[in-house]
Amino acid sequence: MATTVAPGPIAIPATDDDVRIERHGVWKRFRRHRLALVGAVVIALVTIVAFSAKLLAPADPNFIDQANWSGYPLAPGVAHHILGTDENGRDLLSRLMYGGQISLTVAFFAVLMELSIGTVIGAISGYYGGWIDYVLMRITDVFLSIPLLPLLLVLTAIVAASSNKAALGFGVIVVIIGGTSWPAVARLVRASFLSLREKEFCEAARALGNRDGRIIFRHLLPNAVAPIIVQGTLEVANVIILESTLSFLGFGIQPPTASWGNMLANAESNMAIAPWVAIFPGLCILVTVLAINYLGDGLRDAIDPNMK
Amino acid sequence: MPLLLLISIILYWILSNAPGGPLAPYLQNPHITAADIERLKHNFGLDQPLPIRYLRWLGMVARGDLGYSTSNSETVVQAILERLPATLLLTGTSFALSLLIGVSIGIFAAVKPYSPLDYTVTTLAFFGQSMPVFWFALMLQLAFAVTGVTAFGYHFALPSAGISSTDEFDFGDRIEHLILPTIVLSLVYIATWSRFTRSSMLEVVRTDYMRTAAAKGLDKLTIILRHGLKNALIPVVTVVALSLPGLFAGAVITETIFAWPGMGRLFFNALGQFDFSLLMGYLLIVSFLVVFFNLLADVAYAWLDPRVKYD
User: Fold this and answer.
1) Chain B, 224-263: which have a CB under 8 Å from a chain A CB?
2) B283 and A278: CB-CB below 8 Å?
3) pTM to 2 decimal places
4) How many domains is chain B built from?
5) What is the DSSP string of chain B?
6) pLDDT tens per residue, range B155-208
């Protein structure tokens, strides 16, 4: 077998087609998934454009074009604003680029945190079993049982009430989202570890006198990493939506810092005269999330064709 | 039951981290001095350590008292009961619509896999899952409420806020107000349930008993509906039961945007003033629903599929 996927009973290839796929491994299967490739390209483009905002953006995201702005959003094309301006006369395209930076960075770090917590808890739970497993899984159950959005809203409201809304910065949002959305990852990792710890190579590692920490991170974790990557990719999409929802409702990234979500917060009141203010930020979210979901779907098919 | 207790402990602990806890609304009131706060704290027993406060609160909840909602000037139970019918109307309609549309397009897609219809359904499902709900709501408002739609020589416009335009109940008016929020709330569920039905149905279509049924010479419709659907729906039932509480939680966004006078909007409005009892009550009820439907899903699964055994 040419693949490096998790060891286990090898499925007997049913047709010639399967044999061909199997031989060329993960990359080959991923390449066959055209939409996933398109997704990857779109994500790369969005990321590059957002992070070169300093070079590409036509204006400062918080600059108010007082020469042309008269209290109403400027339409796309007017006074060199390609996508127009928002209700405060700030260039929409520039804000979209800088907002993208925020939305993508929040998603990246929140998912990183989520994966770290989830992996550690799941690994310890699955490896040791017994009462440690019982305690950790009950805590996981609690977090799985409280609906995420209301919980996030309450947590951000607590931070807002403790000092003021301006305290809801980038770091706070990352910690709140990352600290509450790890249970799914923990369950996933625990399931892999439950089967991995019974394998011979784990026994061998133990017989050689390795410490538990080394067995968990050097021997078992690399074998459980494939589903974590898939889950992590799909979670980036979820977190982008979560963050933008929080920001839209006023409990996320606070203005004047642009994020795709909070750019939509004031769009509703001006929708009749300036629909573009409401359309473009949402379109950015939709396209990015769609691309990530297709990429995640393709990765899942490529890494483990039997996984659902 | 132990899980519910654990949930309530963790929720209580999280929420009491808010400055002032249940007294948070009074902190912003300039007419109330620090001494008053201390007196109130003592009167409400808030100077007691956290575990004692929790046990007292638990005793209240056990007697069906969720406390007093400061932002609504009524008890939490009253406030929630008042809004419950509106929420049930919205979530119930969305639930029925999602189930009907989601499951049926899932079946259509699975019966003819890789057909243009299948591709359309799968693509739409991906869009539905990737759509930020609040933006979808804004776009629907833009298209149907702000500008309105002109078709067949008529100009339509749907209301974008509230539950009715008149004080008296009018069926047509109520339906008009329901349309947009229902579509918004249903979108995600139509998308996930149709995807799930499709893959579950695809698996069933390949089984031996389906071939047997076809060999017996039954017509296609009977095979799909009587033999296929019955088995394909077993996992769907679980997914549907598990996502029901999410429907309530999702209603927070939909109700807020469409000014729908339900529980979700009640919860959202309580956030700004940090109405401790109401937030606590809402989270407790919604978490209780999650646990309840989890249990229900397990039971339903065992009941529908005799092959499943629980130790």
Assistant:
1) 245-246, 248-250, 252-253, 256-257
2) no
3) 0.85
4) 2
5) -HHHHHHHHHHHHHHTTSTTGGGHHHHT-TTS-HHHHHHHHHHTTTTS-HHHHHHHHHHHHHTT---EETTTTEEHHHHHHHHHHHHHHHHHHHHHHHHHHHHHHHHHHHHSTTSHHHHHHHHHHHHHHHS-HHHHHHHHIIIIIIS-EEETTEEE----SSS-SSSS--HHHHHHHHHHHHHHHHHHHHHHHHHHHHHHHHHHHTSHHHHHHHHTT--HHHIIIIIIIHHHHHHHHHHHHHHHHHHHHHHHHHHHHTT--SHHHHHHHHHHHT-HHHHHHHHHHHHHHHHHHHHHHHHHHHHH-TT----
6) 666 777 777 666 667 777 778 788 888 999 999 899 989 988 988 888 887 888
